[in-house]
Amino acid sequence: MEANKIRLTKEKETYLATLYGKALDAAVENPILGDRFAAEAVARIDYDFKALKLPSGGEISLPMRARHFDQWTRAFLAANPESTVLHLGCGLDTRVYRIDPGPKVRWFDIDFPDVIALREQLYPEREGYRRIGSSVTDLSWLDAIPGDTPVLVIAEGLVMYLHEQDGTALFRRITEQFPSGQIAFDGYSGAMVRLVSRLATVRGAKVELVWGVDDPHQLEKQVPRLHLAESVEFLTLPELVSRLSRNWFSKAMAGALGRMPFYRNLVRHLRYEF
């Protein structure tokens, strides 16, 4: 092992798939996200990444998902140059470096303490940036964060792992603490939650998804200040379909599936305002 390589414990391997998907994308000729920070992190970790079971097409869908949330983040920061960003369940994502927010932005990455410890080994400090080691549903971490600016909450790849009452309590607390803001996350339908959990069990992976969002307007009732600003059917995004279609048959299949509401609603990117 090279002297400066970071060795992982078994439990931390679960955070690597999304990072690896972005690193693979960074290496191709026409990347989606072009996340060189992810590629550099993968190069520094002592691990056989080829042994990872990436979801089929993950080297396309993962950077595509991240790019969409990056676009929403940039739009919010352009409109609110003095603001707070809460990146919930950040994992090993390098969004703060990709976005490179301005000097009046306070950016917080929040995840379990072991994830934050790994981030501290992999990524540098930067002005206006703080890492918080905590479960996102233990709301005491919010006590240390000033609620005096608009806030953007990004919860990419997180909400489906939360119990609904914990997630709504978290979002309620945030809408009470800040004067205004946005909450953005990818919502899986109930069918998608069940499907992914079953497939994971078959593969022997420990994945337990619990919160399915069949009606995005339901959250408006549970968290009264929120209103749905945008709902994007992720699986039918033209560029995603085009890149995943290997041949005429898969393209035709994607077209047929894309006409079915059940399929279109499996994964939605949801943006709420308050």
From TrEMBL:
UniProt keyword annotation of Glycoprotein present: no
Keyword hit for Transferase: yes
GO biological process annotation, one example: methylation
InterPro entries in alphabetical order: Ppm1/Ppm2/Tcmp (IPR007213), SAM-dependent_MTases_sf (IPR029063), TcmP-like (IPR016874)
Classification via Pfam families: LCM
Keywords: Methyltransferase, Transferase
Name of this chain's protein: O-methyltransferase involved in polyketide biosynthesis
Species name: Archangium gephyra
A GO MF term: methyltransferase activity
